[in-house]
Amino acid sequence: MKSDKGFEYNKKRHYNVAVVGGGIAGISAALSAARLGKKVLLAESSYILGGLATSGLVTIYLPLCDGLGHQLSFGIAEELLRLSISRGAEGDYPDAWFNNCEDCVAKRSSQRYLTRFNPHVFAVLCERLLRENGVDILYGATMSKLSKNKSGDSVSSITLITKTDSYVIYSDSFVDCTGDATVFYHFGAETFLPYHKNGNAAWYYELINGEYRLKQIGSCFYISSDKVNEGISGLDGEENSAEVIKSHSIILDDFIKNGDVSKTHALATLPTIPQVRMTRMINGVYRIKKTDDKKNFDTSVGLFGSWLEKGPAFELPLETLYSSKIKNLCAAGRCISVMGDDMWDITRVIPVCAVSGEAAGVLAALSSDFSNIYVRDVQSVLSDRNIPLHLNEIGL
Ligand SMILES: Cc1cc2nc3c(=O)[nH]c(=O)nc-3n(C[C@H](O)[C@H](O)[C@H](O)COP(=O)(O)OP(=O)(O)OC[C@H]3O[C@@H](n4cnc5c(N)ncnc54)[C@H](O)[C@@H]3O)c2cc1C
Question: Are 247 and 206 found together in one domain?
């Protein structure tokens, strides 16, 4: 036996870009920054990439198009969709979008550019992709503390707690992809909560008679404001635990309706993170809103549509990703700066998280003082990646 020397606290590491949270936004941000030659860390509190999309079993990659035959989201958003089904799709294979066709617009108007993927395969493929691009992944690492610089306008380091030790990460810039704006919150920046709480969702996979299927019980759609005592914020540990226990119970009761476990019947996969939609967002320099549909922004860094209806098409202004008060911290994913729960419901989904993630990765790679960033530099990197940034570039 060897004597145990005990924990090593505060191991120091240095990066150009540190991304906190390995969901779709974090994967996209880390990949995007690494492709600019930066030394990138992706810290994730669980031991799998993908966040809600994989651990939360939200396995529908919602549309990259406007529902009228026009593709809006490109770049990493499209790359990840294709990657997610590169070893096969669970459903909704987007043929009309993958094949050239004579009547493409007609076909693409009736089939939206979305798909269904397997969460486990997708998670491992994302991990490989990030490693191939040189991203350091630190699993089991929860960001719990933050230090500011002397003037109090930048993050100088964050502390990640792992199994038995802790890391102090110094970085030129940081990207908050926690889904809950946790890094901004720790900084003491202004953040916003949704008006509506999250309803219950209990999505799981069941294997039955050779069929492996996603059971979508509850939708977590937001609770109407007159039911103030129902639903959860998604931010409170005890509340989340109670909700997860409730979901587990709903899942088991649903599963045993089809009989007990047998060779042909298994409860295949449980979600391993709370299935919550909107929890907390940053107060950015700009808050995008529903009436910005078809609006042109000089500072646009990507395009996206609405999964809820056909037609809407938005340009994403860079200013939705950072606040005026912090120079080297930006956000991506479901916690970017929006106005109103209706708009939040549009921006929180997988393709939009990838669009904001890619843009945030470029921003963080190019600058550690966003107040002095030349938007054109960010845009030029994205344009070089063949990403349309304005609706007129795709004929809208
Ligand atoms: C019931 C339900 C159904 C949905 N259906 C769909 C759908 O069909 N299609 C679709 O496109 N979208 C759907 N969504 C929404 C979508 O899946 C998510 O909003 C999106 O995947 C969020 O991505 P994200 O990267 O911003 O955040 P998340 O997926 O929340 O990822 C955040 C990551 O950060 C990690 N993290 C958090 N805090 C810390 C910390 N302090 N330190 C380190 N790591 C941390 C988490 O472990 C997680 O991996 C649904 C959501 C719900 C709840």
Answer: yes
Based on the fold, state whether residues 252 and 363 are members of the same structural domain.
no
Pocket test for ligand 1, best of 349, 355, 356, 358 (most atoms within 8 A of CB): 349
Q: Is residue 129 a part of any domain in this protein? A: yes
Calpha distance 44→47 (Å, rounded): 7
pLDDT for the residue 223: 58
Question: Is residue 217 assigned to a domain?
Answer: yes
Residue 284 is predicted with a pLDDT of 98
Model pLDDT for residues 258-317, shown as the tens digit of each residue: 999 999 999 999 999 999 999 999 999 999 999 999 999 999 999 999 999 999 999 999
Regarding the beta carbon of 345 and ligand 1, being less than 6 Å apart is answered: no
**DSSP character string of 233-300:** -S--HHHHHHHHHHHHHHHHHHHHTT-S-BTTEEEEE--SS---S---EE--SS-B-GGGTT---TTE
Which ligand 1 atom is at minimum distance from the Cα of 48? 49
Q: Is the CB of 271 under 6 A from ligand 1?
A: no
- Give the model confidence (pLDDT) of 218-266 as tens digits: 876 665 656 656 788 999 999 999 999 999 999 999 999 999 999 999 9
Residue 373 and residue 327 share a domain = yes
Q: Whose CA is nearest to atom 7 of ligand 1?
A: 60
Tell me which residue of 244, 325, 243 sits closest to 282, measured CA to CA.
325
Q: At what angle do helices 350-366 and 76-84 cross, to 10 degrees?
A: 130
Residues 386, 291 share a domain? yes
Q: Compute the distance between CA of residue 79 and CA of residue 103 in angstroms, rounded to an integer.
A: 24
SS3 358: helix
Residue 48 within any structural domain of the chain: yes
Q: Answer whether residue 6 is part of any domain.
A: no
pLDDT of residue 104: 81
Q: Whose alpha carbon is nearest atom 27 of ligand 1?
A: 179
The pair of structure tokens assigned to 330 is 């930006």
Enclosing domain of residue 131: 11-193+280-394
End position of a domain, from candidates 269, 289, 308: 269
- pLDDT of 370 reads 95
What's the pTM value of the predicted model, to 2 decimals?
0.97
Domain tally, the chain? 2
Q: Verify that 302 and 353 share a domain, yes or no.
A: yes
Low-confidence ranges of the chain (pLDDT < 50): none
pLDDT at 322: 98
- Kindly state if the Cβ of 276 falls inside 6 Å of ligand 1: yes
